[in-house]
Write a structure and sequence with these properties.
The structure is a homodimer of 652-residue chains. With 652 residues, chain A is of the alpha+beta class. Chain A contains 21 helices and 10 strands. Chains A, B: InterPro entries: Anoctamin, Anoctamin_TM.
């Protein structure tokens, strides 16, 4: 491991700085000393047995500590969190310290066996699991109550004594990664394994999905091109295109499941046992006994939560949906006005004016989405969910419902109420392109520019300090602590999800959408990479075995797309022409085709195995081995224990 | 435990007879002695450490052995199979012999702790797991090859040396059970827990499901009555009925999942870890190495199996479906002829003739279903699936597809092609009632009568034998070994599934179907009980946590029912009357309602948790405890091992 040291450190405090803890300026010395002792204490005394030291700054009232751990401590921590590593025989197994020599990357001294991201994850796990024993409150703060088993770090953060805990970047590795990832201009895949190595599974999976999704859109884009240029408006060709799209979207989602299981098997997270989920930091309630763990913890009645959800959240979401529809109607008024203006003037300027309402509406949609998301977070937090996963599910559901209505309702209205396919095409294009440009700007370029400006200031400030510690480390920590915090992949997946909606919902009307989506994703890859490497603090790595609830969201969108595309086809003038004499036959035919396509989707999803054969064999092998070990254990017991008894029965 | 003893037994061979092994008449003595030795041998020598003795019969050339085990051997076996038992504190935990005093039903000597069915399951498990070591073939039969790890019992059965292995009935317990179950005429629930105690989880679940399904049909039947008597033919009322039915069928399936998890938690099978699945007895191939277990076993290429499935089985099923449709067309010809005859004659006799085609068709359907099932079994067996579960899935799929088409195609044809609702109602009624009567007769009453006749013969024959062993036991074994073998719950679930189809697919046309279904189920309960207790050999108890693939089948039927009912409603003359001016509006409305109902079904299924809160808490608690135990283990390791290393780092 590379060791970044403060020059003046005594040799016993030499360790690689991994995680930074920043206290509030008002944090009392008593509290800080207590925490430092807790962190250094032996595991058996209730400590976390890690290494910690303050960052010495002469002229500033900031309390910053850096945390690390001895190599052996981290390796034992890897066993505790259940990290999975590759063995010499090529199989993946949970790391066990005593069997360390069986693992592939093990070297004599164990350095470099764990990646820096893994070490930081282990330290985060250990800090989060530092629990109060007999303390009644945080020393120095009588109002910050503690009870046995309460996570100390969570209490410190919720009571505002600690500002943040974040992992440090590894400047050298980051430089190499950036070079491979986006600095060279090249046509090649992203270095997914290196991204995972540096940022962890969640981000590795996101970038892999982004890349995969882009590749998967290319066939759709290519097939769409001739439709656009030759204006193939005949029935057969559209049916072929729509059918291809619907089957294709099912197949790519199924194939993704297979690919992602190959990746997460290689990374170990597919096998990693999930940890028991603790209450989320913001959860509050009256102290009681948890029926599952038997531990003291805040209890909040599920009935009250249901009341909050059904009496406040659901009505709130409905009101927001109504507002979104209201805004949509204003947009149609504007559109109407612009059309009237153009018909009156017939100038080049007035023909440009035609696009203005759509552009304004696209901007308004973006703004509404962002405001709504903040409201949804507040509301979901107020619902007081006990588990982070349940909080996330409720948040995702709220945000998805609103985003779908907000982004697609105008298109649905144009398609199925106004039945104006020309306007649909135009609106779709404007919405798609405007939202893409806005997103890239707001998400990556703007923060990148702000970040650059502030980092120049900090560099100057750090230079003016007169300190004797390691200059590079000091500058790095000061730069990184003021960076924005990356709040997870939610927004990134949401963007892809909406894009998938634009592409699939109306694909038979606007085949060109896939091309824009591909172009967007190509730039998205670069701007997201820039964002992760230059704009945000390094996030803690998180093990994850799949993309979770987003898979469900994409699959649901695929089903809705079948319904919309079939209806659009049925409404097209070409198809109506075929069934000129009987509307009833037309609609029955369309309904039959729709049901057949839906059935085909389900059968495809059912028939394609979620995991490739070789991964399945490896998982089965792992399970078999653990069952065999259990059986051997019992056989040994049987041989040794029951002998006397059975001998008696048979020989007496 | 009750001990049934042979009078002349030496005291060291006193044990309760649990399982009977019957050899073929040609079985060589060498082979039988080798097997007896294997069964008695110590576990460490590759035996199964059980007790076995021959049943001595003087004048007959039959080789029958009875198998049992010492109390301690069976308890250790319970630990090996992972049996789950209730602890004193009310929680369910896998049985561990060393902690035996923690379990609720534990008495001083451990008698009665395991039920007879559990003991028989343990013995079956141990016998099935008796594996060849260095034997190259079965002694005495050079052509019956063995290889290390091959199950000896499976080879003995496939090569015809052993005829059968079956568990004995417990006459006293069976008498009590029969009395509680069906001998008293009463209006009460079935003694499900006693059924599970005697027959095991699979049958316990089946009878519980049968009862639950009957109860769940009662509201549908009650609501259907006024529709029938008052001939409520107006739109609103039908829509209400159909909507109620569709929502109801979703709710009852979801509630069943909850109820079944409560039951299987109580029985322990919800928690029981599934065992590693061995190849099924009939599986054959070239000897190779299994990639999962690393053991020698027959290997059969998956590609060849796929070829057999797609090139033979799929075409075969298609031909059968075609034949079924052909028979259906003959039925319509007959129907046509009967109608013409009636119109010509106009007599009472000719009006009875009207029902004849339907009745003949119902009988033909039953016959075709039974023949097809035999063919499907042969074909699926020929496909050479490695695992029993995969064999079962392919068999279920084949049989379901054919049964659905065979039973319902004529109804679909009448409803959607002929659009004759009166004929639909009449056909539905005739099919439903005829198939019910046929089923009860063929499944229970006929075998019961045959069984009674043959048992009289056997009793006479046994009386004529001049033997000195326990007379009762000898008679019991001779009676039971000639009884039919119960082949599992497949046919019973299939019958319920088809019934569910008759009730739900056309519910808005024939509300009375639910009443017939309820009546059928009430008699079905009694005839199935009779069948299990009197007609068939006792089946080996099988742990199972739910009704498996049938849940999926019922849910699929529920989805198809939404489509058929919506279409039927849309086609009814009342509804058409409302949308007189626009067929297009009519069909769009129906399609919208259909999609809304489907969405409602999915949301309901998603919102209703599959397990009740308290069961979920108990499962979580179990998981939490095992994670905590693991963690404690690691902490101990950390405290003892890493001290030296960390002390070095901190103090040096």
């Amino acid at each position: 491991m590379r060791r970044l040291l403060s020059k003046s450190d005594p040799p016993d405090l030499e360790f690689q700085p991994l995680v930074v803890i920043e206290f509030a300026k008002h944090a009392k010395e008593e509290t800080r000393e207590w925490l430092v002792k807790k962190i250094m204490d032996k595991k058996k005394d209730g400590g976390s047995q890690l290494l910690i030291k303050p960052l010495v700054i002469s002229n500033d009232e900031e309390f910053i500590y850096i945390v690390g751990g001895s190599a052996k401590r981290l390796l034992l921590g890897a066993e505790a969190v259940g990290l999975v590593k590759e063995c010499i025989d090529g199989s993946m197994k949970p790391f066990i310290y005593n069997n360390r020599k069986e693992y592939k990357d093990w070297t004599e001294d164990g350095d470099d066996f764990l990646s820096m991201a893994e070490c930081q994850y282990i330290i985060k796990y250990e800090l989060d699991n530092l629990r109060a024993q007999d303390e009644k409150n945080i020393p120095g703060y009588p109002n910050s109550k503690l009870y046995p088993g309460k996570s100390i770090f969570r209490r410190l953060q919720t009571s505002g004594i600690m500002i943040q805990v974040f992992p440090l970047h590894d400047k050298e590795e980051l430089k190499r990664l950036r070079h491979q990832w986006y600095l060279r201009i090249k046509l090649a895949f992203q270095p997914i394994d290196q991204i995972q190595h540096y940022f962890g599974d969640t981000l590795g999976l996101y970038f892999a999905f982004l890349e995969y999704f882009t590749m998967a859109l290319i066939p759709m884009a290519l097939i769409g091109i001739p439709y656009y240029f030759f204006a193939w408006e005949d029935y057969d060709k559209y049916v072929i295109f729509a059918t291809f799209n619907l089957v294709w979207s099912t197949v790519i989602l199924e194939v993704w499941k297979r690919l992602s299981s190959v990746m997460t098997y290689r990374w170990g997270s597919l096998i990693m046992k999930r940890q028991f989920e603790e209450p989320r930091p913001g959860f509050h309630g009256v102290l009681g006994i948890n029926p599952v763990t038997g531990r003291k913890e805040p209890i909040y009645s599920s009935f009250k939560r249901q009341l909050r959800i059904y009496l406040v959240s659901v009505p709130f979401v409905c009101v927001c949906l109504y507002l979104a529809s209201y805004v949509m109607m204003i947009y149609f008024d504007l559109e109407h006005w612009a059309l009237a203006y153009h018909q009156e003037q017939q100038s080049t300027f007035s023909s440009l004016i035609l696009y203005v309402p759509s552009i304004i509406y696209a901007v308004v949609i973006e703004i509404m989405n962002r405001i709504y998301k903040i409201a949804a977070e507040l509301l979901t937090s107020w619902e007081n969910h006990r588990l982070e996963s349940s909080y996330q599910n409720h948040l995702v559901l709220k945000v998805l419902v609103f985003n779908i209505v907000n982004c697609f309702s105008s298109l649905f209205y144009i398609a199925f109420v106004m039945c104006d396919m020309k306007l649909l095409r135009q609106s779709l294009a404007t919405l798609l392109i405007t939202s893409q440009i806005l997103n890239q700007f707001v998400e990556a370029l703007l923060p990148y520019w702000l970040q650059k400006r502030s980092s120049r200031k900090i560099k100057k400030k750090v230079k003016s300090l007169n300190v004797d510690t390691d200059y590079t480390l000091l500058e790095q920590i000061h730069l990184e602590k003021d960076m924005d915090t990356y709040l997870g992949t939610f927004d990134d997946y949401l963007e892809l999800f909406l894009l998938f909606g634009y592409v699939s919902l109306f694909s038979c009307v606007y085949p060109l959408a896939a091309i824009f989506a591909v172009l967007n994703n190509l730039t998205e890859m670069y701007s997201d990479a820039l964002k992760m490497c230059r704009v945000y603090k390094r996030p803690f790595s998180q093990p994850s075995a799949n993309i979770g609830v987003w898979m469900l969201a994409f699959e649901t969108m695929g089903i809705i797309a079948v319904v919309t595309n079939c209806t659009l086809l049925g409404m097209s003038s070409q198809v109506s022409g075929i069934f000129e004499d009987s509307k009833r036959d037309l609609i029955l035919t369309v309904a039959a085709i729709e049901h057949a396509l839906l059935a085909l989707k389900f059968i495809l999803a059912f028939v394609i195995p979620d995991k490739p054969y070789d991964i399945q064999v490896k998982l089965d092998r792992l399970e078999f081995e653990s069952l065999e070990a259990l059986k051997k254990n019992q056989q040994m017991k049987l041989s040794s224990e029951s002998l006397t008894d059975d001998d008696d029965a048979m020989n007496s």
